[in-house]
Design a protein that fits this description.
Elements (H helix, E strand, L loop, with lengths): L5 E3 L8 H13 L13 H5 L3 H12 L10 H11 L4 E5 L5 H13 L6 E5 L3 H7 L4 E4 L2 H10 L3 E5 L13 E4 L2 H13 L4
Parallel strand pairs: 1-2, 1-4, 2-3, 4-5, 5-6
């Protein structure tokens, strides 16, 4: 499967961070906020919650040893790692501090990601994508999708969530709903030389 260099965001693309975050917010605030009502990437903005409360909960969650994986992510990533010519790059905007890098590695292991991969914590995903010639990147955050679209040549697979449904697909932006779709698109695209 030559020429495809795959990259992915971690939170809400590989790990199901938003569901855990929403669960913790509902516990802390005794509320019943729903996933489908998250129309922007920030829970603070989506539900008019104090930003400090959300930041404290996010910090607690990303400090955990385990965050559940998105359905099918570990199996498909393992399958793709065996057929792609280069390791998959995982790029997160989490803190570059070594504590968070080690927590991310542990979370990926505990989610069943046991293949060779490259891990980056950076606010500048565009540079990593360009420097590593990533041809397909999986992302969920609208502003990051647009930054990648405007500043790279890679194809973007939007991992479908309520907060990114207002972006239209085009020749370089494809909406996907799960990791099986990603695998199938890559396999079919390779057969047809479309990817």
């Amino acid at each position: 499967m030559g020429n495809i260099i795959l990259g992915s965001d971690i939170d809400d693309c590989i790990l199901d961070t938003a569901s855990i975050l929403l669960e913790e917010v509902n516990k802390k605030l005794s509320s019943s906020l729903k996933y489908e009502d998250i129309k922007v990437h920030s829970l603070a903005k989506a539900f008019n919650i104090d930003e400090d409360i959300i930041e404290d909960i996010i910090l607690e969650i990303i400090s955990r040893n385990e965050i559940p994986s998105m359905s099918g992510s570990s199996l498909v990533i393992s399958q793709l790692s065996m057929i792609l010519d280069s390791p998959i790059s995982f790029i997160s905007k989490r803190s570059e501090d070594e504590f968070f890098l080690s927590k991310t590695r542990l979370q990926l292991i505990n989610a069943g990601i046991d293949c060779e991969y490259l891990l980056y914590h950076t606010k500048d995903k565009v540079s990593v994508i360009n420097d590593n010639n990533i041809s397909i990147f999986i992302e969920d955050r609208l502003d990051t999708i647009m930054d990648i679209y405007n500043n790279t040549n890679c194809t973007i697979f939007i991992f479908d969530h309520p907060w990114n449904r207002n972006i239209a697909e085009n020749v370089r932006i494809w909406r996907i709903r799960n990791w099986v779709e990603i695998r199938d698109l890559l396999m079919i695209g390779r057969l047809n030389n479309e990817v």
